[in-house]
Amino acid sequence: xxxxLGLDFQRxxxxxxxxPSDIIxxxxxxxxxxxxxxxxxxxxxxxxxxxEINRAPPxxxxxxxxAMAEHQVTVDGVTHTLPQPFFVVATQNPVDLAGTFPLPxxxxxxxxxxxxxxxxxxxxxxxxxxxxxxxxxIAGSLPRxxxxxxxxxxxxxxxxHASEALVAYVQALLQESRRHPGVQVGLSPRAxxxxxxxxxxxxxxxxxxxxLPEDVQALFAAVAAHRLVPESEAxxxxxxxxxxxxxxxxx
Length: 251
Description:
Blueprint: H1 2-5, E1 9-13, H2 20-24, E2 25-30, E3 35-40, E4 47-51, H3 58-61, H4 65-70, E5 72-75, E6 78-81, E7 87-90, H5 105-108, H6 122-130, H7 134-139, H8 147-159, H9 164-179, E8 183-185, H10 189-205, H11 213-224, E9 229-230, H12 237-247
Parallel strand pairs: 1-4, 4-7
Antiparallel strand pairs: 2-3, 5-6, 8-9
């Protein structure tokens, strides 16, 4: 993905002994200059892969909160701006595996989408098995876009029109999530902003200058499910999101 988009890339393996400073960086005293110098961590990139993020304890996971929300980090009272564009892609293990920690709700709320990759289909798996080494494939990949193109596309997404009726529909979904049976914690305003942003992006991909309720519906589970806190773990989050979506009519 980073190779195709022409972005700088860093991968971090999250483990139980990982420290926040291992992610964002640390200030070290320079004996020669007689001052502290900041040494940036892996978060100073354009696309960060946080692999097995729930292997790290919540305190370490929370080191990404400011980076994901504000695209900056603060160390020793000094704020450092991250490169643009900046994305975090994370993988996580099933929560019932030993050695995993649940992600804090505040962290989950900062991820725009949660996707289930699953297994490849038979044809794609055959091509994968018969193909070259993945490292050679990545090394030989030519960028299809540049970071400037990605920033331009992000601006174009912001220009896609969302009508007052569509905004009202998204707000109705948020309100329904907060009172729906089986929901302990509903969707935050950040979820609504993410849902509208995703709907605008989907409309742009389909060549439209305006977002539709169908765009919101297509993305609702991916945007909402991981943010919902059910009253019982027996209630699957995806099923809960589907019920909320069905409960709100489109005007």
